[in-house]
Amino acid sequence: MKRIHLSCFVLVCILFQSISIYSQNRAIDSLENVLKTYQKQDTIRVNTLNYLAFYNYRNNPPQAIAYNEEALNLAKTLNATKFIAHSYYIRAVVYTEQVNFEVAIKNYNKALEVYNSINDLNGLKKCNNGLGVLHQYRGNYNLALKHFKETLSISEQLGDNSNKHSYLYNIGNVYSDTGEYQKALENFKLALEHNIKNRDSLGMLNCYNSIANVYYQQSNYPLALNYHNQSLDIAQKSKDSIGIFQSLINLGNLYRFQGLNDKALSYYNRAHAIDNAKYNVKNITALKNNIAGIYYDNDELDKAITYFKESIVLSKEIDDKVNLATALNGLGFVYFQRKDYETALSYFDQALNINLKINQSYDLMDSYHGLADTYYRLKTYDLALENAQKLADSSEKHGLLRHKKNAYGLLSDIYGKTRNYKKAFESHQQYKILNDSIFNEDNIEKMTQLEYEYKYKQALDSASIRELKLTKTVQATSQDLQKSKRNYLWAIICVLLVSIILGSIIFSQRLKNEKSKTQNVVMEQKLLRSQMTPHFIFNSLSVLQGMILNKEEKKSIQYLSKFSKLLRITLENSRDKMVSLSQELLAIQNYLTLQNLENDTFNCTILVDEAIDVTLFEVPPMLIQPFVENAIEHAFKDQTDNKRIDIKLAYTNKKLLCTIADNGIGIDSATKSENKNKSSLATVITAERLAVLSKDYNMEGSVTIEDRKKFDEQGTLVTLVIPHKIIAIS
């Protein structure tokens, strides 16, 4: 029996972009600080928790699950549908990395259900891609292909081509695993074009590896070697330890298949020495299968059994059907070699059942070959014939000459034993044709490979020579510059240093000026607000003093109670730069109530436009009250009844307008009767505050005071344009 060369390829699936350890740790520290300082229970906190879960999902899974659990519970409390779906998605990613596929699938399905309910195509896209990776990892290629194609379709619906290369790459991997090599190459090469254009080293590395594996499966070793070397070169330049690991294993597979076991084992040992790869159990499982294959080839069967059984244990732990089937086939061939045919049959049958489910073409043909050969040795010729014919049909379908040659060799032997000499002769003739073809192909491949290796080494030598020449040229140029242009060089350095110093000084001065301006604005705001609060308190205490002097005990006690409540609100509002509009209106209502206790002869209304949600608007405190106070103090001289003050708020053209209208004597009459040089301190302060606030918020703020006689009405009209903020609803 010609030895069957067992092979296993490292599956590379892109789910997330790789993140360096340094930048990842910085991101975690930054997010944890945000979490400590930001105590609001809102969607910002949900997002922060989920980001922390994502950053921890590889290195600290228990912490990742804890963050995600808190995020999901908070999202449910807030009834934030989109955030609930995203939390389920993050949870699925965490459990996929932990190889807990059942829990991962449940969470993906929950996320899909919620995203479907709100027709969120981006959410559906990422869930389908994640499920495709998961099912491909488990060896369920039909489901994987379905989800990857759905991902690509949604991406095209959205007109988003940013990750199209990743989806094409994933689809290519599925076609490669199911033996549809032409389709696989088409998808890989489209993805590679995009990666080269965008200088994506990780994407290029994965595509080169995958294209090489397709050529490997088709026995085109020179092309496979070319692409694997390109992959290894990129991985080494980008210091990608996992990429180096994958390339070394693939190169080892390539040399082992050509019978160069010592060279193959050296590559496997280099891969095994990479510590970072040990965290991915699937990688270690594949490597154990490869090393076991070397020992099988070298007739060290006990060692081969040990490694295959270790691979089986690990494969079952992570539900890795692909490597499990490879290991089972390997044990079948080992026990066949030992002539323990019943044990061999048991392992081949187990491998066959798995390969039929996952449609893994290469290992499936190994199972057919093993079963056919074993049944032939047991003289069960009908079953031997059945499996040999399946091997022939499958190898014909996938264009694999070596398997096809093995199939016709077995068919010739079986037909000979069953006395069907005509078919035995036809099968033997076909076997000879295939054997000659493979012999010629092997010779051509060996020559091509030697030529490629020679050219590759020659290219490396040429590069080294060019590098040496360039180094010498640089050294000579440096020496010349040191001798003839040293002064000129120092002059340039001095000019640059002076420019840098001057630039730094100018920049520093500008920065200080900007800081000074900002501090002046803040100080001016605080000063004006601090002036406003004592002014109001002085007026209120004056009224209270009058009541006490007039011995109005009941009224003064009631006034004092109302005044204390109003004072508390006023002091709280004065402490903040911005307060809720609802809080400001409450302060005005309390003030009016307090004023009516003294003289219950005026009516006041506060009307707020329906377009204004007073809980969402924030305004500077103590802007409206001074003008209401002026109206009460000065508008109604010699007017004993029908005193009226109307306060209205409207929101038009992104301006918050407040009007205070009274039906008193009017501003013109009041000005004539009083000292023209005297103006209300509160009015002056408020006008100054509005000027400062306008600059601070880059928003119009102004006050206009008009006599209503110009509108054929009685009284004064104050119009305030108030700088404001609107709180966004999350």
TrEMBL record:
Gene3D superfamilies per UniProt:
Histidine kinase-like ATPase, C-terminal domain, Tetratricopeptide repeat domain
Q: Does the keyword RNA-binding apply?
A: no
Q: Where are the transmembrane segments?
A: 488-507
| Domain Signal transduction histidine kinase internal region residues, every copy | 523-597
Per its UniProt record, what Pfam families does this chain match? His_kinase (PF06580), TPR_12 (PF13424), TPR_8 (PF13181)
**Placement of TPR repeats on the sequence:** 85-118, 165-198, 245-278, 325-358
- InterPro entries reported in the protein's UniProt record: HATPase_C_sf (IPR036890), Sig_transdc_His_kin_internal (IPR010559), TPR-like_helical_dom_sf (IPR011990), TPR_rpt (IPR019734)
Q: What is this protein called?
A: Tetratricopeptide repeat protein
State the organism named in the record: Meridianimaribacter flavus
